[in-house]
Design a protein that fits this description.
This protein has helices at about 15-30, 55-60, 65-70, 80-90, 105-110, 125-130, 150-155, 175-190, 205-215, 255-270, and strands at about 35-40, 45-50, 100, 115-120, 140-145, 160-165, 195-200, 225-230, 240-245, 275-280. The chain has about 280 residues and is of the alpha/beta class. It has one domain: Rossmann fold (3-Layer(aba) Sandwich), CATH 3.40.50. The strands form two sheets. Strands 5-4-1-6-7-9-8-10 form an eight-stranded mixed sheet, with helices on both faces. The protein has a two-stranded antiparallel ribbon with strand order 2-3.
C-alpha cells in the first residue's frame, strides 16, 4: 500500500508501545557479544519532526509520546521507561520534544561494530526521506527500496550467529495479516532461534484475531503476546489498542516488559490497560 505514510501517526501510543519493546529487546540481546543481523521490514522515514504538517494534522503524538515525555521526571533513571526516555532525549533540542524517532533510529543507535542492520521501505517518498537521515552512509546499515516481507524471506538465513526482526506493516491491505503469518513461519523454518517482534493494530474489525489463530495453528512455539488497550472497541473505525508478538524473547524480558507496559498504560489514557500471555502452537 503505497498511500500509507507513518508521519500522520508518528509518536502515537502504538509507537511508544512498539519502540519501548524494541528498545529493551535490543538491549537484552546485546548483553551477549555475538553478532546480530537486525532487519526492519517497514522502516518509514527514520525521524519525524512533530511540527510537520502531516504529524500536526492528526496530532496523535499528543496521546502518545508527549504524555510520556511530560511524566519523564517521575521515572527512575534505571527503569525501562526512564532509560527509554533518556535515549529519546538525546535527539531533542533541550527540554522541548521536537521530533520522534522511528524504528530505524532506535535500531541504528544501538548498532555495534559486529552487527548489521537492513532497512526495507517500499514507498519511494518514505525511502527518500530515510536516505536523508543521519543513519545514511553509516557502516553496517543497508537500505533497500523493496517489499519488506518478501525481502526478509529472501534474506534468511543470515550469516551472523543471531537474527532479530521487526515486522510492523500498516495492515491497510487485509492480505498483510496472512503475509505476516507466512513470513513468520518461513523465518522460523530457516532460523529457528530467530527473535522476531511483530506489531499489529487492535481495530474493531478484529482481523488480528484471525492472524493470531493462524499463527497458533501453525505450531510456532515460544510466542509472548502483549496488548495495550486505550478504550473499548467501538463500532466505528479507529485503532483502540496496540498488539505485540515476541518470538523467542530473551530470558525474563517478558516480565520486564509486562511491568513497563503496565506503568505506561495509565499515562496514555484513563482506563487504559495492558495484558500479556504466553502461548504455544497447537502442534507443540
Amino acid at each position: 500500500m503505497l498511500a500509507y505514510q507513518h508521519a500522520y501517526h508518528a509518536g502515537n501510543f502504538a509507537d511508544v508501545h512498539k519502540h519501548l519493546g524494541l528498545f529493551r529487546l535490543v538491549q537484552a540481546l546485546e548483553r551477549k557479544a555475538s553478532a546480530i543481523s537486525f532487519v526492519d521490514t517497514h522502516a518509514g522515514r527514520g525521524i519525524y519532526p512533530l511540527a510537520a504538517t502531516e504529524t500536526q494534522k492528526l496530532g496523535e503524538y499528543r496521546q502518545g509520546v508527549e504524555r510520556v515525555w511530560q511524566c519523564r521526571r517521575r521515572f527512575e533513571a534505571s527503569s525501562p521507561l526512564g532509560d527509554w526516555v533518556q535515549r529519546l532525549a538525546t535527539l531533542q533540542n533541550g527540554a522541548e520534544l521536537g521530533c520522534y524517532p522511528g524504528s530505524p533510529w532506535w535500531l541504528g543507535e544501538a548498532l555495534r561494530p559486529q552487527d548489521r542492520l537492513t532497512l526495507f521501505e517500499l514507498h519511494p517518498g518514505e525511502h527518500r526521506f530515510l536516505a536523508e537521515q543521519r543513519l545514511a552512509g553509516r557502516a553496517g546499515i543497508y537500505r533497500r527500496q523493496a517489499d519488506g516481507l518478501a525481502g526478509l524471506r529472501k534474506l534468511v538465513p543470515v550469516s551472523t550467529p543471531r537474527l532479530c526482526v521487526l515486522i510492523d506493516p500498516s495492515y491497510e491491505r487485509k492480505a498483510e495479516y496472512d503475509e505476516v503469518v507466512e513470513t513468520l513461519c518461513q523465518v522460523m523454518r530457516k532460523v529457528r532461534h530467530a527473535v522476531v517482534l511483530v506489531w499489529y493494530p487492535l481495530l474493531p474489525a478484529g482481523r488480528h484475531q484471525t492472524m493470531l489463530a493462524n499463527l497458533r495453528a501453525a505450531g510456532i512455539p515460544k510466542l509472548w503476546r502483549s496488548e495495550l488497550t486505550l478504550r473499548e472497541p467501538a463500532a466505528e473505525r479507529g485503532m483502540y489498542g496496540s498488539g505485540l508478538l515476541l518470538l523467542n524473547p530473551p530470558w525474563q524480558l517478558d516480565q520486564e516488559l509486562d511491568q513497563a507496559f503496565g506503568e505506561l498504560a495509565p499515562m496514555l489514557a484513563e482506563g487504559a490497560s495492558h495484558r500479556s500471555e504466553w502461548w504455544v502452537g497447537e502442534n507443540h
